[in-house]
Design brief:
six-stranded parallel beta sheet, alpha/beta, 20 strands, 608 residues
């Protein structure tokens, strides 16, 4: 899938990465709105997710005259930015969204922060009042560039129509190079109505002070190879940067060459085969015991495209306390930010690993691999089924099995999107993600309401795939209006609601740390999701018994159009294991509940 996405991007860009539309200037006179559309066409943009308003009506009028651009009308601007985000995560190409001034622009803020935290390439266009009215509290004016400065990679306030081609080329360059991220372009109304003659889209732009380092320093690569050769208990730790760089094959080659037990963050799931003997599962707050213990006891930790987030590290003074750390990352600001690093390597993960691999001698540490195998066997995540209730883990487990059968029968890859909470963590634990970009969810910001509009973006980007939105009864209600987009665009998105009648993760924390005082976390019966789906013209069903589950999942996955399945699960089930906030990752609660096994015997340390 990554290869296909890269090929699609290459078709729209010349071999040197320049847009196909770049060339000689035209002699026609164009409005700023026309220039914007021409620039998007030159960039190879196929789809825009947006919502019109007064300040952007000239842009919508220009879109009306350009059939090459597909516009998806969302039902809330939050849906636009999350859909563009999902499009980008599914393909690696930049997602594009458009909103009007004032409240339209501010409704993008959470989605921009979501993309920023997870390093997702996205270009957002917002309308604004005329330049003469900026700063005068005009109707529907908001300082969106000031508001979004901390949550975008860069943003622009366009003040002259002649600057538009350069700024838009810069926006796409910034969004997609180095560490990817969202870029915002704010368009005052008089700029998009002004005219210019001699339009030319630049093949490249010079951005003063911006030159990402792509290749690792040779001496640092040699130092990393020496560390790997000397290590007795190494662990390879993958983040979302591996997927962004398209480096899944390289990390697998490194792991197999040096026999490195491998774990990942939530954002890194899919970058490593889940059935590989070296795979440990996800680490961190809801990570597997094998992953958390391996990192705690390792003597070398090789981090690739990861930022040592607090949900991964827990207490940093107890995180990999005896390990030397190699950190490979495109963003030098991330190296040493949260943990001490012994061998920093700044560069693109794929290029760095390609240069590192020839320097690494094949090796294996049998005692360490035996310890890892024992942990994985004894502390495999399990759950107890019940005859009267569907367990939430069972829902994920059966969904994974039915998705695999669906792929084999139809040849359609299943891509899972998720919202935030218990269902997201159970998916990370029990769903085997076999390909990069197959699990689309909000990692760093933890944005409820992300899953459904993201699924729309994924389905638009990948019409050949079966897109499943796994969500909770709390999360789905935050952007449920986007079901109307699913209907109107005839998108065959499958929505599966893990319905436990609670804000599940909030309730779990209240149970564990607030004396079971469930303050405003119970959703009781909530709305009738079947009637809601039917109001949007979407077929729906409900199940609440384990005996019904397999048939219901098969019906949902194989239905030719959109479908909603409301799955009633055990209300007060907890997601185990769990590292309490402020704890070390080897201080997991619920290990016995999650695995049926007690605490492990002490591990002999071999290097300090």
């Amino acid at each position: 899938m990554e290869a296909a996405a890269a090929s699609a991007w290459d078709e729209r860009h010349q071999p040197n990465g320049q847009p196909v539309g770049a060339g000689s200037p035209t002699t026609e006179t164009l409005t700023g709105a026309d220039v914007l559309v021409r620039c998007l066409e030159a960039e190879g943009v196929e789809v825009i997710f947006g919502y019109p308003g007064g300040a952007v009506l000239p842009i919508y009028d220009a879109i009306y005259n350009h059939s090459s651009l597909r516009h998806i009308l969302v039902r809330h601007e939050a849906g636009a930015v999350h859909a563009a985000d999902g499009y980008a995560r599914a393909t690696g190409r930049p997602g594009v969204c458009l909103a009007t001034s004032g409240p339209g622009a501010t409704n993008l803020v959470t989605g921009l922060a979501t993309a920023y935290m997870d390093s997702i390439p996205l270009v957002a266009f917002t309308g604004n009042v005329a330049t003469s009215l900026i700063g005068r509290d005009a109707f529907q004016e908001a300082d969106i560039t000031g508001i979004t400065m901390p949550i975008t990679k860069h943003n622009f306030l366009v003040q002259r129509v002649e600057d538009l081609p350069h700024i838009i080329r810069a926006a796409f360059t910034l969004a997609t190079t180095g560490r990817p991220g969202p870029v915002l372009v704010d368009l005052p109304k008089d700029v998009v109505t002004a005219t210019m003659t001699g339009f030319r889209y630049p093949a490249r732009v010079r951005l003063r002070g911006y030159k990402p380092t792509l290749h690792g320093h040779p001496r640092q690569l040699e130092a990393a190879a020496r560390e790997i050769a000397q290590a007795k208990q190494p662990v390879l730790y993958l983040g979302g940067g591996v997927i962004a760089a398209g480096a899944a094959q390289e990390v697998l080659a490194l792991a197999e060459r040096a026999q490195l037990p491998t774990t990942s963050t939530l954002m890194g799931l899919g970058a490593f085969p889940p059935d590989h003997p070296l795979w440990l599962g996800m680490l961190g707050m809801h990570g597997t015991p094998a992953a958390n213990w391996a990192v705690t006891h390792c003597d070398l930790l090789i981090a690739v495209g990861a930022r040592f987030d607090d949900r991964v590290t827990g207490r940093t003074d107890r995180f990999a306390p005896r390990a030397r750390i190699i950190h490979i990352d495109i963003d030098p600001a991330e190296i040493g930010k949260n943990v001490e690093v012994h061998v920093p390597i700044v560069g693109d993960a794929k290029k760095v690993l390609q240069a590192l691999l020839p320097l690494v001698e094949p090796k294996a540490e049998p005692a360490w691999l035996a310890q890892i195998a024992a942990w994985k066997s004894q502390y495999r995540l399990r759950y107890q089924t019940r005859s009267d209730e569907i367990m939430p883990q069972e829902l994920v487990d059966r969904l994974a099995a039915k998705a695999e059968e669906h792929e084999e029968a139809t040849g359609r890859e299943v891509v899972l999107t998720a919202d935030v909470g218990q269902h997201q963590m159970w998916a990370a634990q029990f769903y085997p993600f076999r390909r990069p970009r197959s699990y689309i969810n909000s990692g760093g910001l933890g944005t409820m309401g992300f899953g459904l509009p993201a699924a729309i973006g994924v389905q638009v980007a990948r019409p050949e795939a079966t897109v499943v939105c796994l969500t909770g009864d709390g999360s789905i209600q935050m952007n449920i209006q986007e079901l109307d987009v699913v209907r109107s665009q005839r998108l065959p998105v499958k929505v599966i609601i893990m319905n436990n009648r609670y804000l599940g993760m909030v309730r779990q924390w209240q149970e564990l740390f607030y004396g079971r005082r469930y303050s405003h976390s119970a959703l009781e019966e909530g709305p009738d999701f079947i009637l809601l789906a039917q109001a949007y013209g979407i077929p729906a069903a409900r199940v609440d018994r384990p005996s019904q589950l397999d048939a219901a999942l098969e019906e949902a996955l194989n239905h030719p159009g959109p479908y909603l399945l409301d799955v009633r699960v055990r209300p007060e089930e907890n997601c185990w294991p769990m590292v309490p906030a402020g704890g070390a990752i080897d201080e997991m609660l619920g290990v016995e509940e999650a695995t049926g096994a007690g605490q492990p015997a002490p591990v002999q340390e071999v290097r300090t």
